[in-house]
Amino acid sequence: TGLNLYINGDVDRIRRTPPQVAGELLRANREKRIPHIHASTSPSIYFYDVNLQLPIFKDKSAGRKLRRALALAIDRPRLIREVSRAEQSPAYSMVPSLIRGYHAEARFGAGTLKGDIDEAKRLVGEFESAGNARPQLRILYNTLEAHKAIAAFIQDQWKTHLGIEVKLENQEWQVYLDSRRKGEFDLARAGWIPDYSDPNTYLELYTSDDLSSDRDPKRLEAKINYNQQNHSRYNNPHYNRLVIEYSARTLDYLADTSKRAALLADVPSWPDFAEVIGSKKRSNGKTSWEQFREELPAYDSAESSDARIEVAQRLRMLLLEMAEQMLMWDLPVIPIYHYTTSEIWPPELEGIGINEREVHPAK
User: For residues 200-210, b (16+ Cβ closer than 10 Å) or e, as one string?
Assistant: First the structure.
């Protein structure tokens, strides 16, 4: 309807290019045949929350294997090509590659669909070998044809590759929000538009205010106050400390000898540290932990406060990178794709341009 209004000259701009024609219009725009469409990458992300309160997902080892299998067994490029059709970017992490100073990369996946599917099948096999029955799952989404099409595609992927049956359930917006808030879902469609250009705006979503080292599950659960967006009910005290404490107060932790020592001792104490943070190499051949330790002397030897702040910012980004590695190892959330922004306005309309928040004050 919006596109037809634009074509007929009844409106001067539409904020969403219809997915049915987005791919064709974007190609035409690149070929400079239709100078009306304006597109760019977006920092927003489309994903599924996983309800960690369900018994099948709650078990630390088996639940993680099942979540990882589900995340791997989605052909994201095909989904974008055939379903969403707006040239979005496949997401294998929460934080996009648009944030200056942050080392964004795929945090899960082998790099090939076949490799990912083989790994997913192996993980489901291990899940069943631990005495778990292959589950039947339910995807909850708010009523919209685009969400329905994506959910149906993923439903088929999980049935075809993993033999897992999935039911789809749509609810109107307010009912859907209430169901997510109450945890009445298995997997739920979600999206996030960042409030500011920093990894924290994505990573704080899955924090809670429990920073204790109490390992008793019952006592721990009683103390948890989840972030209001943490519908997965993910709680990892190590993750919480990285996001809420260390990266939020980096200068404080670097300047205080005892606090720095506590940080350096705490991060490697995460039970999965050796398998993830301590072994996953970055593009420069070093782990994020090795990079962090190498950067520390530069902070101590900095000759001015500005120089110290510059080093502290690099160290802060590395702390957030380690937090994202934890999040993408535990996978309480399954990233699907990072959005593109595509709006339509005529060439003669001046003083307007694409920006990450899609905000255009009409003044």
Answer: bbbbbbbbbeb
